[in-house]
From TrEMBL:
Example GO BP: transmembrane transport
InterPro entries: BP-dependent_transpt_permease, MetI-like, MetI-like_sf, OppC_N
Membrane topology: Multi-pass membrane protein
Assigned keywords, A-Z: Cell membrane, Membrane, Transmembrane, Transmembrane helix, Transport
One cellular component term from this protein's GO annotations in UniProt: plasma membrane
Organism whose genome encodes this protein: Achromobacter deleyi
Gene: gsiD_8
The protein's name in its UniProt record: Glutathione transport system permease protein GsiD
């Protein structure tokens, strides 16, 4: 029976101590997420409050990151924008992983469904993800449900193909065949033997889905297809600040830096987690 190699709580700190990349990525990610989630308590300006007389004000004691072209506090807008991006990315990861897991198990374990499911997945993958998101947002409007669905659809086939490849290899293992030969029900075999084998690759894939979702949401906001102006998002903040970059570069630099660090931290943690959980990477590291 396949066992999980996810580190237990007791062994988490030694694992992090032996892997500086994972430790740095996780620490940076937790710091950025904490700032975003605590935005209502660590900011004292309404991110949507207009103050034209304070427009393009540089960094000061009352405005830690300055103000934008409408006098809105950039510090609160960046944190609220990051909060929106992180929440949306988490929803996209959960939906993509759950839907892809179900499709991948069905395609990999049940041979009669394999061809039908994989042809649908191939058709979805033939459509560029960003173009599909732009079309869905343009038709359905820029709401959180629409954005989550638009970004999740291109990610589901990637998860399904990953799970299918794992299930195809596990299905032929002797312990699975022995369990079936003993009359174990299919549902129990999937739950006890097949599903645990998919957890590690899914955890790693979920981190990359989060980074991709944050980037796509920022691109949509930058192109003017994101959330309404009263809802701060990192992409829209950068887009609005382009015209004032030479006079007030902080409008673009600070949200851009937060976005870059957020994606970088997720990718650093995801890469280190993949190296830790992938048996082939572990063998290369130990060898």
């Amino acid at each position: 029976m396949t066992t999980l190699v996810l580190p237990r709580a007791r062994g988490l700190w030694p694992t992090l101590a032996r892997d500086p990349m994972m430790l740095c990525g996780l620490a940076l990610l937790l710091a950025l997420v904490a700032l975003a989630m605590l935005a209502p308590w660590i900011t004292w300006h309404d991110p949507a409050a207009l103050a034209p007389r304070l427009r393009l004000k540089p960094i000061s004691e009352g405005y830690w990151l300055g103000t934008d072209s409408l006098g809105r506090d950039l510090f609160s807008r960046v944190l609220y924008g990051g909060r929106l991006s992180i929440t949306l990315a988490a929803l996209v990861a959960v939906i993509s992983v759950c839907a892809g897991l179900a499709l991948g198990i069905l395609a990999g374990y049940f041979r009669r469904l394999d061809g039908f499911i994989m042809r649908i997945i191939d058709g979805i993958m033939a459509i560029p993800g960003l173009l599909l998101a732009i079309a869905m947002v343009a038709l359905g409007g820029a709401s959180i449900p629409t954005m989550v669905i638009a970004i999740s659809i291109p990610e589901i086939p990637r998860v399904a193909r990953l799970v299918r490849s794992v299930v195809l290899s596990v299905r032929e293992e002797p312990y699975v065949e022995a369990s079936l030969g003993m009359g174990t029900r299919t549902v129990r075999v999937l739950w006890r033997h097949v599903l645990p084998s998919t957890i590690n690759p899914l955890v790693v894939q979920a981190t990359f889905i989060c980074a991709s979702a944050i980037l796509i949401e920022a691109v949509l906001g930058f192109l003017g297809l994101g959330f309404p102006p009263e809802i701060p998002s990192l992409g829209s903040i950068i887009s609005e600040g382009r015209a004032f970059f030479q006079r007030a570069p902080w409008i673009v630099l600070f949200p851009g830096a937060y976005l870059a660090l957020l994606i970088l931290s997720i990718n650093l943690f995801g890469d280190a987690l993949r190296d830790r959980l992938d048996p082939r990477m572990a063998r290369k590291r130990n060898g």
